Amino acid sequence: MSIETFEVNQTPAKPAKGPKSEQSMPLREGYLRLGFMGLEMVSLFLLGLMIAHGYVVMFLQEPQIFPLYSTPLMLLPLLMALKFNRDGFYETPALIKPSTIALDLMKSAGTVFIILIIIGFLSGLAHHYSRVWYVMWAASSVGVSLILRGAFSHFLNRITKGDAGLSQVAIFGDLPAALKLRAQINAEANGLKVVGIYTENGNSLDANVAGSLEDLIEAGQRFHIDRVIIVKDTIARFELSRLLRTLSILPSEVLLYPGFLGISGGFSEITTVHENRFIRVQKKPISEWGLLAKSLFDKSVALVALVGLSPLLLATAVAIKLDSKGPVFFRQKRHGYNQKEINVWKFRTMTVMENGSDYKQATRNDSRITRIGSFLRKSSIDELPQLFNVLAGEMSIVGPRPHPIALNE
Question: Partner of 223 for a Cys bridge, out of 6, 35, 301, 323, CB 3.0 to 4.6 A?
Answer without folding.
Answer: 6
